[in-house]
Structures are given as C-alpha cells and as structure tokens.
Amino acid sequence: MHKLIRVTTLPISMEKLLENQLEFMKSHFDITAIACSESEGTYLEEYGREVGMKTHTIEFTRAITPIQDLKTILKLYKFLKKEKPEIIHSHTPKAGMVSMIAAKLARVPIRIHTVAGLPLEEATGMKKILLKSIEKITYAAATKVLPNSNGLKQTLLEFNLCPEKKINIIGKGSSNGINTDYFDPEKISQGEVNNLKSELGLTGDETILIYIGRLVKDKGVNELITTFDSISKSHPNCRLLLLGYYEQERDPLNEDTVRVINKNNAIIELGFIKDIRPYLLLSSFLVFPSYREGFPNVVLQAAAMQLPAIVTDINGCNEIIQNNNNGLLIPKKNSEALKEAMLHLIENKSVRETMKLSTRKFIQENFSREIIWNELLKMYTSEIKRIHEK
C-alpha cells in the first residue's frame, strides 16, 4: 500500500473537522495521522486506537514561534526520511508550513496543503506581512494547494500567494463534506426536541436564533450580540442560543459584549455542544456573521437540517447560501444590514418556511461527504500515477 501522512495542528481537528475521512482513506492507503503537542498526545493516540490507524505526536505551536518551529521541522523531517511516504497532506496554517517545508526537504514527492481560511485577511501591519510570507512559503513548498472554496481560490490569486497551476478545488468545495445521513432532521424525534425545549425553559412559542462557533471577534459575535440585544427589547419573544467557546487570549470579544451575554436573559449561553442537531431543529434560523471563512461546516450542517441562515457575503458562506433562496447574505461588519436581515426573518415566518424547502436537497447533491472523499481519492490516485510515470 502507498503511504499517506495526514497532518493537523490539533488532534481534535483530525477527529472532528475530518470526521471519518481518514477511516475511508485507510482502506486505500497505509495512513499515519500526525498532530500536536505532547500535552495532547494521549488524545491523538486514543483516536488512533479507536479507528485502527497509526499516529505520531509532534510538538506544534499555534503561535508564531520561529525557534520552536525550526525544531519541529527537523523532527518531522527525520520522521519523513524514515517513513518515506508518497503523500503528505496538511491542514491548518502552522501544520501546513511545518509539514510542507519538512516534506520538501525530505523529498516527499506529493505534498498537499488544504487552505480552509486565511488569518491574514483580518490582520494588519507587520502581522499581515508576516502571515502572508508564511502562506507563500507553505504554498511554494507544496505540490498541490487545495482551497476549500472557489472564493478562497480567488483570494489566493488576488494576494499573489500561489500560482494557479498548483491550485485544485475538491468537488464544489469543503474540506470534508457533510454526513447527510447524520445531519438529517428525520433522525431526531420530536420528543427529543420537546425535552430540550423544557430543559432550556422554552415554551415553544419563541422565535429562536442560533449561533454555533467560537465566541470570538472574527466570527462577528460582537455585532451579533449588540444587534440581538437591541432587537430583544422590541421583540421580547426572541431567544438567541450561543453554542461555542471563548478564545479570549487569541481573539477576545469586547468587554461590553461579554457583559451583555451575561446580563440579557434572552441570550442562552450553552458552551460547546457535541450533538448540535436537536438545537438546530428547535431553532428558527442560524445567524453566522463571520468576517472570514474557508468553507464553514456549521452552515452546511444547518442547511442539511433544513434551517435557513443569515450569513456574511464571504468565501464559502456565499457558496452554500443563495440569497433569498435558502437564507440571506449580508455585508460583513455591517450591524445595520445584520439587524435588517434578522428582523426580516423574525417577523416573517412564512419566508423562513419557504426557505426551508430549498436547504437540504442542495447540500445532499453537492456537499455530501462521499462526494468529497471520492474526489480527493481520485486526486491522490492521479498524483501517484503521475510521479510513477516520470
């Protein structure tokens, strides 16, 4: 079997963002999963044992740490020289930079990096210059670059980060697609939804908005909370569910935002939720006003569960949501547009119900995970054939 190495910075990305993809590839390749640091090594090892796959822990950092990064590159280089894989495929910026440099030095013939978002889009000054340089180095060392949306491909070209001949998009976008058998409204009983309503203190008459994701500035959470706080005063029957965790050290919310979340009883903060399906089913619509994305899983998941969405008109989001069809597109960082869209869906239940009819089928036909996996496998096979014909 040909050897395939898959690399992410965090072990949880291997299990969640690439859910079941590595298990699928395991029947076609001798596969090893690599992820970060020693403190999370046990998590990766447990995941490997669970799915019957080899793993290797290496010490990554998510921050910019040149000395540590050089040490990591050297360790990974030695590992790759020993293993001699035909393919290495990385995800996330730090894992990508380290993997692609180490793999090029080790002469791994097929070096693939998936781009699922560009932090430099919201950066400024020296930080933006540095992040741009890191991306350019990563793509220069790669043999294939896979942005997970068409919009992200255009961004790579506009920033002059990568030659177009290296760029491929798998299917119509997404890094992993979605399990439409799991994200299926028929798989959750009305009894489960009713029990959840009771747990949350809901009567069933409320208009429920839901946000799922990290509670950070870059996801537009400041604008979301300020806007909902205003709306809840004139529409007391509205509720906002927040599913996600804070990253106050990396991308903090405004103090006023946190204060409103804690004070406004119409905002229900739930933290990280493993199974979001019942929460999507009891909701009226998703609100996801992010500043930048690659191809957002949560928007795919909501649509698969027949939930309309308000999203920003950015990469990925605007390839899932078609304005006035299965949701609404708004400009990013625009509180007035966000308020207008939220009020439109709050006050027009018939519009929401019509939008629901156009959500799930589009996802099934374009973004089911089997489509993405088979397209990726086809690309791997084609690349192996190419290097053996040389």
What would you call the shape? globular
The assigned structural class equals alpha/beta
- SSE sequence, one letter per element: EHHEHEHEHEHEHHEHEHEHEHEHEHHHH
**Number of alpha- plus pi-helical segments:** 17
- Give the CATH H-level superfamily of the largest domain: Glycogen Phosphorylase B
CATH class of the largest domain: Alpha Beta
- Helix share of residues? 40-55%
Strand element count: 12
Rg of Cα set: 21 Å
Low-confidence stretches: none
Q: Which SSEs are present, and which pair or pack?
A:
Layout (H helix, E strand, L loop, with lengths): L2 E5 L3 H5 L5 H6 L3 E6 L5 H11 L2 E4 L8 H18 L3 E5 L1 H13 L4 E6 L9 H17 L2 E4 L2 H9 L31 H10 L7 E6 L8 H14 L3 E6 L11 H9 L3 E5 L5 H6 L2 E4 L8 H8 L4 E4 L4 H4 L6 E4 L4 H13 L1 H8 L3 H8 L1 H21 L1
Parallel strand pairs: 1-2, 1-4, 2-3, 4-5, 5-6, 7-8, 7-10, 8-9, 10-11, 11-12
Helix pairs in contact: 4-5, 5-6, 9-14
